[in-house]
Each structure stands twice: as C-alpha cells, then as structure tokens.
Write a structure and sequence with these properties.
Elements (H helix, E strand, L loop, with lengths): L12 H10 L6 E2 L5 H9 L3 H14 L3 E7 L7 H6 L5 H14 E3 L5 H5 L9 H15 L1 E8 L5 E7 L4 E6 L2 E8 L5 E5 L6 E5 L17 H4 L1 H20 L4 E5 L10 H14 L16 E5 L4 H21 L12 H39 L3 E6 L10 H8 L4 H7 L33
Helix pairs in contact: 3-7, 3-11, 5-14, 9-11
Length: 445
C-alpha cells in the first residue's frame, strides 16, 4: 500500500528484444496503417459534426465518477454483480446503489489505488486522463493505457497512448506484444510479461486480414467515411454556393410607368444609400424611410444549393447514427418530450454500455494486482446518481417507502443517511387490515 516505498520492476525488454530479433521471421512488428491518425486530425479536430457528437458522448460519460470500494468485513455479496447488470433503469440503478451501501465500504483515501483515480500521473487529473482515453476510443475505435508498475506489479502511474502510435508484435498469428512509438526516433516494446502493462480497450473488429486487423479496434468513422466525406464536401460546397450565389435581392420601382423609373444617376445613388443605410451590422434593427415608391424582390437559392444543404443535414443524421447518438439531441428546437426520450435513450444505449465495459476493464487490469497484494476485494464502481435519466420519480420513491426504510430510500436517491433511529424503520399505513378479516355478509350496499 505504500506508494513511496515501492520500486519499479526490472526491465527485461532488452533480453526479449534480442530473443525476438533472432526469430524475426516468425515474429514481425505489424505496422498497422489504417489512417487512425487521420480520424483524429481530419475527423475530430477538423469536422464540427464529429467533434460535437464525440464531445456530447464524453461530457455525458464524465458525469459518472469512479470510486474504489472494498468488501465489508464478513459480507460477501453476490447480489452486487446481479444489480450491476441492471443499472439501465431507474429501479435498477437505485437497487445497485443500495446493494453497494450494504456490501461495500469506501476504500481509504490514502490507498495508492484510490490516489490513482484522482491523479493518475504527474501531469493529469483523472478527468483529464479519462477524457483523452475516451476521445481516442470513440474516434479511433480503440484506446491504449500503459502503467508504470512497481515491483509488486501494481500501477505507480497511468498514461494514455494514441492508437496510431501503437503497433503489434505478432508470432504465428498471435498477438504477443506491443511496440510504442516515442516520436523521438525511439520505440518502447511491451513483450513477455510486460504486455500486461498495456490496457487495450477496443470496439469489435470483424476484419480478419494479413494486417491482423482483428486485434485492433474498428473506428466508427471507418464505416462512415462516405458520410464524413459527404459532410465535408457539403460544407465546402455550401460555402462556395454562398460565395457564388450572387445578389440576394432586387430593388425596383413598384409601378409600371417608365417615366417614373429610376434614372442611371438615381440607381447609383440608391445603391450607395442601400450600402450605407441598410447593409451591415451597424444598421441592424434600424427603420429606413424611402422618398420614392420602391419594392424589394428576394432571390432564392438555386436548386443545386438547396440540394447541397439537404445533403448536409442528411450527413449529420447519419454521422450521429454511427455512435448510436439520437440526432434529436442536436435539434435546435426539440419538443420537451422528444428531448427527454432522446436523453434517456442516449444514456441507456450509449453511455451505460460503455461505462460498464470500461469499468470491467479497469477492474480486471488495474485493480486485480492491488487485490492480490493487499488480499482485499477492491472494486471500482461508477456512481450514476447524478444522471437525471436514472433518478426515481416521486411516485417510484413513494412506492419504495412502503417496503424500505427512509435511509434505504435516501441511499437509492444518492443522498446521505439520517442519524435518527426512526429513519431505519419501515413505516406502514395505519388502519390497513387483511382482506380475510372482512365478512362478506357484513358489507352493506
């Protein structure tokens, strides 16, 4: 448990590299060139649609805060695992919070594992760290974390690696290690037992090919390249259409008598007046007075320009579908019910499945060595009580109060317990008796 008394484990990479160099014919380093870097450069950082969608997912996922728990002494809860799998409803999330309260205690704040969830490395907080992990996951289809481990095999610090800087060591069709590009002309290999210092979180990839793509994640952008290209092309074409569309309106006399039409000199003066008194932000909301009868005719967009804008909207919807994000969340004028339904679907179908998968990965990779070292059953669990979509309604809360204590219901709601003894009692409605106590003959109609 002592963070400052642990030493980094001995580095055996050089020995392994020498060994693999002797059998390099059967153990190549596979350079996985599927433009993962382009997904970040041309997708996330250069496309407003992609940035907005991914940011929406990550901001929502960041609402859940991870905590380290430990089994209460003498309490072994199998129900914890059962309720963990049913957190996608308000009832399920409430039951899970109650089960955590019954079976688990918060781990000490000075536990080195707990400290990693606050400050995983010298440069990042946990939110900064996990945000970067999730950006790579949802943009590139996979995320890599490596740990600097101590001689007890427990993590001293955690670091994010971009997917495009990681390449595979393959031996007879099996993944046996990773090579990390350090961007300074050097590489770091994770071979043998050191491969356990890498956590690889990836989306399923059904591509089995000579590049061993099945060992890498499949980016949603790879499936949506057509719509990403359409989105970029549509934006570019829309800008060009605005630049090349020409005049947007026409000012002309509103009477048929040619003698009353504007002379060339009057046209020039009227045009200059329009430029100075009508156009521009300085004239916003001003009222302009005309000394002559004129009319304005709006010139609409061409059919080609309208088709371009419709294609842009279509591409936006399809890009949302790549991550399963309801497009309603980006609607500027949604109805309350539509937004509520979209938010619930977003949390249940996108956020919770990801958090559960991430939680399982962290527990099996990060937590397990600490469990072995301390001989305690640690577990990381995300607190979902801040999600409005998973909160009990007033009617649901009243229903629970009929079968649970006040403190149990407060725990379900994510609130602190009351110290008063009555809060640990179940209250029943006064005057209720079994139906069997009634005699049908005594009932008067």
């Amino acid at each position: 448990m002592g963070l400052f008394t642990r030493k980094k484990k001995t580095d055996n990479v050089q020995k392994l590299q020498s060994f693999y160099a002797s059998v390099i014919g059967s153990n190549p380093v596979v350079w996985y060139s599927y433009n993962a870097e382009d997904f970040v450069k041309n997708g996330y950082t250069s496309n407003a649609e992609i940035y907005s969608i991914v940011k929406k997912i990550i901001d929502k996922a960041n609402v859940a805060i991870p905590y380290v728990y430990v089994d209460k002494q003498g309490v072994k809860s199998k129900r914890y695992l059962t309720t963990k799998g049913s957190r996608d409803t308000a009832f399920g999330a409430a039951e899970h919070r109650l089960e955590i309260h019954k079976a688990l205690d918060y781990a000490p704040d000075n536990l080195d594992l707990s400290m990693l969830l606050k400050k995983p490395n010298a440069d990042q907080t946990w939110r900064e760290f996990i945000t970067l992990v999730r950006i790579f996951y949802f943009v590139q289809g996979e995320a890599f974390i490596y740990r600097d481990a101590g001689d007890d095999n427990c993590a001293l610090s955690l670091h994010v690696i971009p997917a495009h800087l990681m390449n595979m060591h393959i031996d007879n069709g099996k993944l046996v290690g990773w090579r990390m590009n350090l961007l300074n002309g050097q590489f770091r290999d994770f071979l043998g037992d050191d491969i356990n210092d890498i956590l690889h979180i990836k989306m399923p990839n059904p591509l089995f090919d000579a590049k061993y793509s099945q060992f890498r994640g499949l980016s949603p952008l790879l499936a949506g390249l057509k719509y990403l290209k359409l989105d970029d092309t549509a934006i570019e074409s829309w800008v060009k259409s605005v630049e090349n569309e020409g005049a947007k309106g026409l000012i002309s006399p509103n009477h048929p008598n040619p003698e009353l039409w504007l002379t060339p000199e009057q046209v020039d003066k009227t045009q200059a007046t329009v430029e100075t008194k009508i156009h521009g932000s300085d004239n916003r909301n001003k009222i302009v007075v005309s000394a002559m009868p004129l009319q304005y005719t709006h010139i609409g967009l061409s059919p080609d320009a309208l088709n371009i804008i419709q294609g842009l909207d279509h591409a936006g919807y399809k890009l949302c579908d790549l991550w399963g994000v309801p497009a309603t969340l980006f609607d500027p004028n949604p109805t309350y019910q539509n937004m509520k339904a979209a938010s619930e679907r977003f949390v249940k179908e996108v956020i919770l499945p990801y958090l559960s998968a991430e939680e399982d990965k962290l527990n099996s990779w990060l937590v397990e060595p600490f469990k072995i070292r301390d001989k305690k059953n640690y577990v990381i669990d995300y607190d979902l009580s801040s999600y409005e979509e998973l909160r009990l309604t007033a009617d649901q809360t009243d229903a629970y109060l009929k079968t649970h204590t006040i403190n149990e219901v407060r725990v379900m709601l994510g609130s602190d317990e009351l110290e008063e003894e009555y809060a640990n009692q179940v209250f029943v409605q006064q005057g209720m008796i079994p139906l069997s106590d009634y005699n049908v003959e005594d009932i008067q109609i």
